[in-house]
Amino acid sequence: MSTILRGLQFYPGKTIIHKLDPRVKLVISLLLMATAMMYIEVTIITIIVVTEAVLAIIAKVFSRWARTVYGAAPLIIFVFIANFLFKLSMPGQSINLQSIYEALQLAYRLVAFLASFSIFFLTTTPEELGMALTKMKVPYMYTFAFISAIRFTPILAEELQSIVDAQKSRGLELEKGNIISRLRRYIPILVPLMVNVLRRSYELAEAIEVKCFGAKKNRTYLRELKMKLKDWTALSISVTLFILAVYIRYFSKIVIP
Amino acid sequence: MIVFENVEYVYPNGFKALNGINLEIESGEIIALMGENGAGKTTLLKHLNGLLKPTSGRVLIDGVDTRNSTVASLSRKVGIVFQNAEDMFFSPTISEELAFALNNFNFPEEVVKKRVEWALKFMELEEYRDKSPFLLSGGEKKRLALAIILAWSPDIIALDEPTVGQDILQKEKMIQIIKQANQQGKTIIISSHDVEFIADLNPRIILMSRGRIVKDGSAEEVLTDIQLLHECRLIPPQIVSLTSRLDFLGFKPKLARPEEVAVEIARRLR
Asked: Chain A: residue nearest B76 by CA?
């Protein structure tokens, strides 16, 4: 779990991907996901994943990006098994290669999804994300809540670890007993975590109030977002490719292997 | 007895926190682990009860390799008091908080009761027994955290930064408690960069820097090595700073009680 969280954490860099306008990056990520939604074919999903890998290499975050995908393996396996079992439960189905293959396709698509998200978050600072959302007319109150959530997840993961350490040192054994008693064992972990989260949100609320949060409706920024030539280029390339993908799917007769 | 044999620890993110640690701690010793932030003190402490297992080398607690044992069974022997006391609290009352570990270690019910009473009394928390641990003040929370560990009477007690956020009286009380537990035969290991606090305790000091032990010796030996302390980003105790500046009176840097130094200065001035 913490591997996935780390994969969503911004990692500073100076590559062209980092410098791209966050709005363009968001659109590219969403288009990649939309393309993955339209297609189920392994070939196309592979093309999408490879494209994402190339983007990750250009942004010099490849190893982190790969680790996110790798860290999501349990989730992907879960989706595979769930889909497979669901297919089996349908009337008239039996275990055959076809149903395994279909479940595999759905799980594979998830890789494309996660990978696309991961590149976006790895190369975009929370501030840039905030600016992008504000420009898209999202009320700053919500934007701020969203950015804070992203910003605090790594801290939360760290805190969780130190709580687990402290309780294990008091003889708490998480891997013992049946399901019910196991869930009960998580109380000593969850209570301190909730208390910490609540306390920090009060502190944060006080801190931002001291700095006059929400005093003015229109916020200004030190660095304003402006679409430059490279942003328009990147945007038009990706939109063109997406239109092409839509055309091939719904209007042409090309058979995809 | 605690033995570290060529211990190396690399965090999953690739950071090498311990690098070739060799260490022997006899039972009944008081040890202070000192060094700047990120020197590896907390990582070393977490090896004592198996929360972390060495990536290479081995850690032996009374002859038991930590890799062959669980955290729960090692914790029976090694109690670690972490820096942030609030990470522990989840029970509705302080008495229940104290009983939690005792129940985990399967102590009989009468023993649990007796130990809880003893811990409440020893740490002067009796009047709060039915209060929520979250209602305590900062200093009291630290005391409760220590009481929780002392309640099951582990042979080895490790304290991570016990003086952070404590006032001078609480620190004095802490020194008393540590000395008292030590007299009962407990091995005490403290990680700290509170130089004055450690100087008062006068333990064996293990000085760490970037995952290595740079010096292992008596408090006198380590805390008067001003050059080395500087390299490890520690300020020498005030009494050492003073005596090191009195070289015109024939003083050498020295760790002593202020009264002794005052008498000595008066004698030399006469």
From this structure: A171
